[in-house]
Structure formats: C-alpha cells, structure tokens
Amino acid sequence: MPNVKSLLWVFLMVVIGGIAFAQNQPQPTGWVVEDDSVGVVQPPAIVAPQAQPATPAPPPKWAVAAMLSLDPKYAGGIVDVSASGGTPEPKQWIILARDTADQGVLHRITVAEGQVISDVPSVNLVESMRQRVVIAPQSVQVDSGDAYLVVEPIAAASGKIIGHVDYSLHQEASDAGSVWTLNCFDLDGVYIGKVNLLASTGNVLSSSGFKSVQGN
C-alpha cells in the first residue's frame, strides 16, 4: 500500500497541475452588463418654445413712431405727415388725421419725441374739405430717416451737401403707394432740389435740382 507521503505527493501534483491549467486558459476582457431597461418607455423630452425676437420699435424722432403715437381714434384716418428742418430728424411732426369717432373731423396733431404735444381740429376749410387717401403706418417700410439716407448720396453725386430737409408723406390714390417728398436745402438754407420716392420700397420716382436718378 502507498504510504502517506506518496499520497500527499500525488495530491500536491494534482493541485499544481490544476493551477497551471487555469493560468493557461484565455481570460475575459471585460464584464457584460445586461440592459434591464428594455421595454421601459422613456418620457419624451420637453423642449421649451423659443421666444420670437421682438419687432424693434421705430426711432422715436422718425415719422412712423409719430404716427403710432396717436390716439386709437385716429387709426385708419391719417392722411398727411410732414416736418421741416430735418437733420435728418426734425424737432416735431405735423400729422393731419380724421377722428373716426367724431364723423371724420380733421385734426392737426403735433408730435415731438414720440409724444403728442398738440391736438386741435383743423381750421383750414380747404384742408378739411380736401379728400385724401388714408396712410397706413404699417405700409411705410421706408421711414423718414431711411428716406434721408436715399436722398443724401443723390445730392452728393451732384456736388451738393444737404443742410436740412423738409419731409412730406402723402398718398394720392388708394391703389397707389405712399410717397415721400423730400425738399432739400444746403448748409446756408438755400433750396437745392427735391426727390420723390416710394415709402414702401425706397425706389426713386423723380427728382429735380439733382443729376438724373435712375429708379432703384
């Protein structure tokens, strides 16, 4: 019979052989974790609506701001907008508008810095009786300051420098657009020319006192 030492030796050899065998086997490169989220419905992400950029307000000294400053009773009743001494902004605007809440009585309204400073019924009988086409502020895409920027290079092309301008915004027919008329004066206050242009596009309709201008 084998003795105890022989049995221990055999047992030791078996253990050593098992360790060597285990070390020679390929080792796993990483653990695989099963995804237990299969079948779980995720709530949709809530995306906050982006705020639309606000429409910029017109410059307070320009014509459109003056038109928008009027009492709502004059909405749909503006028939003439004018100013003198614009450099390019005038000190005040004179607006003729019919009071839609009072039988269309014509009022003469003075606006400065975007604020109404005077509002009186027109005492000019001819002015009151004259039939004029209403000017919608939203149709005036070319504001007074923009009109000045159209006219200034026209004068420069004729070798003239504008000192100030007188503005007039009017509409002659319901199927025609509003028209800016800018009467131009030099630095000494001497009249040097006039330009008519569309208030919707800025296209030059006609001019006098300056070199021939092609409509743009």
From TrEMBL:
Keywords: Signal
Signal peptide: 1-22
Protein name (Swiss-Prot/TrEMBL): Uncharacterized protein
Protein source organism: Terrimicrobium sacchariphilum
Taxonomic lineage from the root: Bacteria, Pseudomonadati, Verrucomicrobiota, Terrimicrobiia, Terrimicrobiales
